[in-house]
Amino acid sequence: MQEKFRNMISYYPQILQTSARVLQAAKVLEMPIIVTEQYPKALGKTCSELEISELPVFAKTNFNMLQPDVEEYFKSFKDKPMLKIHYVMTLNATQLLINKYAVVCILLEQMYN
C-alpha cells in the first residue's frame, strides 16, 4: 500500500483499512512482519495510515518479495508461520514454500458483494 497508488486503485481507503486490521492482528499474534516496498523512489513509501515505524522495510524492484536481503532476514523465522498479503501472493507463497519456510498463510477477504 504505497502512496503512489492512492488515487489509482479502486476502493483504496477500504483496502487500506483492511490492511491495517490484518497488520494489527499479526502484531497481536506476534507473527514476524516485514514490509516490502516496490521501487519506493518512484512509487513512494508505505502509506502513513499503516503503522510500520518499528518494522523492517525492504525496497525491491521486481514483483518477487524474496530478495536476497529479505531471505537472509527470514532465516531466523524458518519455523514460524508467515502471513503474506499482496497482489502477487501466489508467486511469493510458492517461492517461500520452495525455500522450505514452515507455513505460508494467505489471507483473502471478500470486501464487496
TrEMBL record:
Official protein name in the record: ISOC2
Top-level taxon: Eukaryota
Organism: Bugula neritina
PANTHER family hit by this protein: HYDROLASE (PTHR14119), ISOCHORISMATASE DOMAIN-CONTAINING PROTEIN 2 (PTHR14119:SF3)
